[in-house]
Amino acid sequence: MPGLTSASGVLGFLSDEEPELKVFALQTLNDDIDTLWTEVAGSVGQIEALYEDESFPERQLASLVLAKVYYHLQEYNESMTFALGAGDLFKLDKQGEFEETIISRCVDTYISVSAARHAGPQEKAGHTALPTLATSFANGAGEANATAALTSPTTPFSQSTLPSKSLLSRASTNTMLEPTAQEGKTGSSLTPNRATQAALELVIERLFEGCLREGRYRQVVGIAVEARNLEVLRRVIKRASDDEKKASGKQVEGSAGPTEELMEYVLDICMGIVQERGLRTQILKLILDLLSDIPTPDYFSIAKCVVYLNQDEEASTMLKKLVSNDDQTSAAIAYQIAFDLYDNGTQEFLARVIKSLPAKVQEESAEKENPTETDQLLGELNDRAGAPAPSSENVSDEHFEVFDRIRKILDGSETIKLNLEFLYRNNHTDLSILNKVKDSLEGRNSIFHTAVTFCNAFMNQGTTNDKFFRDNLEWLGKAVNWSKFSATAALGVIHRGNLTQCRKLLEPYLPRRSSLGGSIFSQGGALYAYGLIYANHGAEALDYLKEQFNDAQEEVIQHGGALGLGIAGMATGSEQIYESLKNVLYTDSALNGEAVGVSMGLIMLGTGNIKALEDMITYAHDTQHEKIVRGLAVGMALIMYGRQEGADELIEGLLNDPDPTLRYGGIMTVALAYCGTGSNKAVRKLLHVAVSDVNDDVRRIAVMSLGFILFRKPGSVPRMVELLSESYNPHVRYGAAMALGISCAGTGLDEAIDLLEPMIKDPTDFVRQGALISLAMIMVQQNEAMNPKVASIRKTLKKIVGDRHEDAMTKFGCALALGIIDAGGRNCTIGLQTQTGNLNMAGIVGMAVFIQYWYWFPFTHFLSLSFTPTSMIGLDHDLEIPNFKFHSATRPSLFDYPPEQEVKTDEAPTLIATAVLSTTAQAKRRAQKKERAQRRESMDIDQTPTTPKINAPVSDKMEVDEESKDKEAKADEKKDGAEGDKDASAAEIAKKKLEKEKVGYDIENMSRVLPAQLKFISFPAGRYKPVKKPTGGVILLIDTQPAEEKVLIEEKLKKASTEKAAAPTTLEDMRNESFNLRRQADAQGEASGAAAAAGVLTAVDEDEEDGEEAECPKEFEYFSDNEDED
């Protein structure tokens, strides 16, 4: 039947008294509504009257017609309301534009209504859970805050925000609020009546049921999370579990079931997309409750949840349950969980788990007789946390052995030992690059000496290779004052994790009570190094460091001791250490005040300790020293690490402070409280301050902090900072460069490199410095196969460091860059998140303190905390390293180490070529031309072979010379005019070589595996199989043939011995010791670099009256576009 061309006749039936005619009219109009809606729109009132008439038999049909008319009129809310009134006549499974639009509108409305309904209780709970600061800016709406807002150069956050695009990124209603945005949103949104809401629920239920029936669980999960409806989320996960039980026979062995995959998906969106801490906590609690009901619980997901929720009881219960199963697989899973807990948990959390594990009674009593600092610290933590005492009843000796191993893993000693062994045996440091940096930078200039020290420390981080110090004792002797402090601390970076040899290595440098200890700078640096070796694993070292810190009288030694205490005692929350630091802070010394302020933050890292914050804020307002205020500002930010909405009150207070240094701390608090969340709220705040604050330091850190917020979404950062990288203000440009480096570290992202390359030629020296450091961060562990630009960037770095006309600031950044790009013997990347996807606390803190090098160079060593070994280490159930191979489904060169730099043989000084006059050269050319002409003539005349003449060798020689000259000329032309072509051809050759290679190769256990390579790694069927999907780092293996003898990998580090240097007592002895050690090192080449350097670094600096002093850096100038035009 052909469609109607006009609706006028049919519309007339709507006025008829017979209901059958009205129904006929509605059916006819419904069939052709897409062509007739313009005419029907005029009769909407009549159709609405039919819909509202309860006696009319086809009310739902009238409602459907109305829905389609309003849809064409683009009144989607009214259309949705009438479509819901149509009941079953509205077909959800029909494929059409109308149906898709209305379903989309239904889902959006359901999400907004459900989220508003479920948000109320969470907000109230949030208000009661958050303590308030009893400080000068505690009154949120009081006069003090209003006055601060007026005097502040920044606009309050609530007046500058825009509504967010996603419901997941809505601001919570705590202190860092967006009242204007929230009110506007709720006022404009449609609030359906009860009947419509009931119909909406039915439609959504039908949608959900359809999805669940087809196994599309993820779609329902997404809607449930965005709608904050945890009941639906619970139902979906249970349904998936039930479906898995029914289909258990059909499931392929070894593959992940639908429930396990769904759990991983929920965890991923919970950690990566949900931005509100309260909602995330509720979802994780729900997952924890549900995991026990699943037939095969995913213990690794549970571990992820308990770390985030800080539920140590759950963790210890899970470990005890696995050990009690008494089989090899369960033990291996328990070990793997312990490794994951160590990677993701704080020292305080791990101490509580360790305390709750069963231990032998004899050991406990022996320990109580001679309590160590470890026990005191653990006792303090557990007393505060109220952890239950472990019971050792009904535990066999075998189980005790397993628990002892778990304890070793949880306290970090096992992971640290394995990483140290990996870095030692796979060290690929290219010493020729390091020597080039040293030769290019004058050692007498302290900034250059320090730059080489940092470059050496980063290149050899964790490798224990201090050969560079041993080979360059004369250069090392040029270090004075703080350069000596940094050089001694570099030993801590190089030997990071070398716990067994720590005391032996640093003995000559550490402070002594009895005899003369040498330079106070080397003593302070040694305490800093001690902390770096025990970084985030300080229970064994804290007692010694605390004692040295309390005994120190010299400010420099206190400075180093404070930094060492902070790094080693990170996140322990120890009140005792905090009080010691606070007592030194109150002496009001600018020299050690900055280090003490940062260390107070490190000890209380992430605790949100209100008392500590009040002390720090009060003292920051009282003191006159800017260095102390800055240290306290960074310390307060560290205390609020990961607190999200809990930090909002502190953020508002700091950002409204007239002191720019405290505003700087406010921005750092935003960066650390919201790190890795991708929070729209935090990003808007930072961008606003970046363009509105009057202080350059605050604007710089605001742009830089974008990198901390968005490092989980590195692709979004280049677009965000593109305009800021072209700002007239060099501080903003520097911030943009560093933001790219922080967020895109180790990714080799092309968009970031394209933005940074022009900044290498920026007119301001410190912008060039930031661009070089960021390029190195992004290019770490990249080779030419992964990113063709890496060769040209390395070439640029070597060129800049050797350029005599380059500024000192830029050269300093270049030296750092050369160290970072080859970090840890080319076996480390910069990791701000762990292999399992959680935040890497030590890495983020290291990066946050590293960027303070702008004010104080010794903070540069903190970057080493961000270096993460990219290893694959397989362990069996006895925690031994079996000799086996795993498979990588790629070409070998794709993830290979970059080639070592070729040392040119002609670099030594050569004789200068004799100058040749142009007239002489012309005469030679004429003679050669004449000779060739004669030869050609003779060849034309006499074709028969003749005996060679006496001058024939000379003519041959001339021909060879001519050929070589032609070749040289061509080479020069290529060099001058076609460098780009050369690079392109090199890239093409590399590409062809890559294509020829065979795909797939085997890798030995304990080898380097890059994060990008993990997806290509597989374990071939054989003796060992992993307990979980490989994520890098330590992987526990299940031995399928335990009866057979196993072949283990020999640990090379155990063979290496560390030579202990004797402690010199007088200045003369020190010099003699230095001379003897240097002679031994030159003769044997076997002495440890730390031992060899001891005599040089511990020598007291003598101030000579006529001694030459290093030149002071010149003041930098601002260059803007306007000035260039002038």
From TrEMBL:
Biased composition (Basic and acidic residues): 930-939, 964-986
Residues of the 26S proteasome regulatory subunit RPN2 C-terminal domain: 870-1049
Listed Gene3D superfamilies: Leucine-rich Repeat Variant
Recorded GO MF terms: enzyme regulator activity
Protein name according to UniProt: 26S proteasome regulatory subunit RPN2
Organism (species): Cudoniella acicularis
GO annotation terms (biological process): proteasome-mediated ubiquitin-dependent protein catabolic process; regulation of protein catabolic process
Keyword Repeat tagged: yes
InterPro entries attached to this UniProt entry: 26S_Psome_Rpn2 (IPR016642), ARM-like (IPR011989), ARM-type_fold (IPR016024), PBS_lyase_HEAT (IPR004155), Proteasome/cyclosome_rpt (IPR002015), PSMD1_RPN2_N (IPR048570), RPN2_C (IPR040623)
Residues covered by region (Disordered): 922-986, 1078-1126
Role of this protein: Acts as a regulatory subunit of the 26S proteasome which is involved in the ATP-dependent degradation of ubiquitinated proteins.
